[in-house]
From TrEMBL:
A GO term, aspect molecular function: maltose binding
Lineage: Bacteria, Bacillati, Actinomycetota, Actinomycetes, Pseudonocardiales
Region (Disordered): 76-95
This protein's name: Carbohydrate ABC transporter substrate-binding protein (CUT1 family)
GO-annotated biological processes: maltodextrin transmembrane transport; maltose transport
PROSITE patterns on file: PROKAR_LIPOPROTEIN
UniProtKB keywords: Signal, Transport
GO cellular component, one term: ATP-binding cassette (ABC) transporter complex, substrate-binding subunit-containing
Amino acid sequence: MRKLHRAALLCVAAAVSLTACAAGSGRQADESGPAAAPGKDDKFSLTVWSNYSGREQAEVTKALESFKQKFPNAEIRHEGSQDDDKITAGIRSGNPPDVAMSFTTDNLGQFCTSGSFQELKPYVERDGVDLGQIPDAVRSYTEYKGNRCAMPLLSDVYGLYYNKDMLAEAGISAPPKTTAELLDFAKRTTKKAADGSIEVAGFLPTMLFYANRPPIWAPNFGAKWETPDGKSGLAGPEWAEMLKFQKQLVDFYGYDNLERFRAGLGQEYSNDHAFHQKKIAMMIDGEYRTAFLEDQAPDVRFGTAPFPTITPELYGTGFTTGTIMGIPKGAKNPGAAWELIKHLSFDTATVVDLANGIKNIPSTKAALADPRLEVDENFRTFIDLATSGKLQGNPVTPIGDAHIKAIGDFATSWQAGAVPDLMAGLEEVDQQIDDRIAKSGR
């Protein structure tokens, strides 16, 4: 499965290399306008690098093969297990792919501001592409300060997963809607052994473990990354409330006790995942987890809902991110590369088929509304969130994910009891981020 926050969290990437196209189609878009598209009957080869594997790689290959409906003589080879480091190395060596797909939006600001990804606006304007088909939050994480250097390929949306049997056993008939209820329900569904060790955690609050990442948590507390003047905005009441809430749960379990419990849990994308093994009653995760559970833990009776929020007014919001596609600097065939990107981004049948195949959220309004989209009760939660207009995308900066790492590391220290003054600590992190951005010169 595509690992959602695989996006921001695993920093995975992909690349597509297209070669030997029609004459003239190799011109860079920034030289004298957008590069020409290949002719319908032209022969050209496409080499695709991605971090997909197994069943997912096969599904993405099907999507790539559908491109032949428009260009029947295109030859496509799909290779998996590539990442952003390899994309960057290819650009620096002068041998980049023609299309780069990245699971993470963390590096988009760097890609756009450095010119590593070519600007796509000339292509969009030439072809009359309707960007209004892309939901606002998805549009926000595929561009930086007006520079659209990427397009989306499906998206991930995060919400609450809960074990129905565990909640029912604790006398709880509905999932929590506020963080106050989440705290209460977590305590009521926690089970401890006679020696005080944790057998089942109602909710695991450990930051940077599983999907507990700052960008994923922030929308549920109304936390913003920037102040109105564009400075880092972590030293605000919303971020403080988020960290205080997490610390309440950490203190309930006991930090050392919680760490011992966490150390014995399975990996995030393995059969031994704690929720699969009924070791946790509730968690935050992306829509892709529905397929993991159906495949790896069919005996777990689970439900999904929007993640609880600090105030009732915020309920129904959440975090979204997704795979992005761009044309790297120096691409040999940007004209054909754009045609592939446009096809994968906007061909409704292709988008729906791929969404059904790997259980991700479609990244266009038309595909979200398509009756062929397979939506069960648990997946419906994420479709409703995706169409709510209340989602928040990944923060995009010219320093990659340095700002996310900074607040993540701080949150880890805070939970461990190593931060004596919360607000002073947050102000320090803000300064670090502002200094880093200033030094980037972008």
